[in-house]
Amino acid sequence: MTIAQNQHAANEIAAPLDLLLTNSTKSFAGRMAPVAPLARFGLSLAKQPVTLAERGGGLAKELGNIVAGRSNRAPARSDKRFSDPAWTHNPVLHRVEQAYLAASDTVEQLYAAADLDWRDAEKVRFVLDNIIEGLSPTNNLALNPLGWKALIDTGGISAYRGFKAFVRDMASKPRVPAMVEPDAFNVGETVAATKGTVVLRTRMFELIQYAPRTKQVSEVPLLMVPPVINKYYIMDIAPKRSMIEYYVAGGQQVFVISWRNPKARHRDWGFDEYGQAIIDAIDATQTITGADQTNLSGTCSGGILASMVVAHLSAIGKADKVASLSLAVTVLDQNQAGFAASISERAAEAAIRQSSSKGYLDGRAMAEMFAWLRPTDLVWRYWVNNYIQGRPPAAFDVLFWNADTTRMTAALHKDMVTMAINNDLITAGQATMLGTPIDLGTVECDSYVIGGIADHICPWQATYRSAALLGGKDNRYVLSTSGHIASLVNPPGNPRASFHTAQVDHELDADEWLKTAEKQSDSWWPDHLAWLAAHGGAEVDAPSALGAAGFEPLAPAPGTYVLED
Questions:
Q1: How confident is the model at residue 122 (pLDDT cuts 50, 70, 90)?
Q2: Which residues are part of the catalytic machinery?
Q3: Quick one: 484 exposed, middle or buried, by C-beta within 10 A (0-12, 13-18, 19+)?
């Protein structure tokens, strides 16, 4: 597989969070065959006999033309599955390819003709995507010419390698083809490699302080709150691609929370426990640096928690502990986005019961759900590469991080799903944090909010609406190119990268805002670094040692919690 293909796969490792947090608790059969939506799909088509006859007749006629060699049917230019010349020049394979494409197109037409509400349409779309992609002749060992060529080139060894990889992958969850070899990278050496030390360890998290690289640093420290679904090192993914490394080199005093991977005994950790953990980390950064404030930055679900914490601090008269709030790909308004996209109360209750019975939501189940929501790029591409061709997948750091899954506690899962189904954060006082009713309008510190234009988890329009919920007078919104992950792992120097930026305008919706925003080339990282510097207080001498009294170094970065399964 090429680097470009792996980068494309990295862009696709995203899915609506409502599906991840609810469908991940269902069995494979339950996800693949939602009985009621499929029944309504079939009933809708049964009421359209003329449409069925026309589509069936059209397919039969085209199949006849394909057999006779008179069809001009060809894959779309973006469809790389049939790129091998044998699919064009071999008459049998060419007809198989054309028949598959014709049948797929007929299914698409029938789907478009069905009269479904948007929830049923999403669920039927998921099933049809997996059926259509799964039946592609390129996935067939007996038909794919790439498999035969590999068999000849390796003297049959490719078949042994493919079978061995298949047995390994199917032996345990997530039971999909591996996107990266489990030993492709080493945490602390080739990923999560920025120098630092653990200065605080609690039962919930380790706090890592990073070694300065400049003689002077901003007085106000930066505390990064990662998502609770994966491990923190997406922000320290690899040298020269690490956000943490970049900010340290830019003169920031960087701290990051490394969440513990919870087990069943931690089932009661919910919003309040995670919120208190963030407050404990804020207090530690201020004790260690001697600063009175902290710049707080949260990503995805970590951003939700960080926003609620700042609102809580505001409510109890401690808003000045936070100098600014940065949110990356974070949805606070769940209307038609993220969690609430197609979730029902019944599905939410079933998901909560399932995680409660185990004490956690299994990260491997979420990884499996990720994959089947993007079957072409995250399942079948690797099926062909790993099993049919018998090749190891190319090493790619983001895919390695994605496979390094974590669990979510039952209490946090319940809190997240309940908050989402009710869209609690848009109404003052409907959600609580540490006993305090939450009103995001009281978050009056300046905010910097980042969205990804191709984000499947957190649609950028929803992240813009979320920025508008915050009460600060100087809130800046940035719209980056790429999706959920690639918009974050976005180091300077990419000629294809760009971003739009402007102040949040409460009078404009997201699309109207985009028309007024300034487009800039390259990464948004330098813009954010300059913004942080403006909110970082005076320039002070960099610390000569990490930690402080009561916060002595415990272990070198990346710490110990990140290594726990």
A1: confident
A2: 300
A3: buried
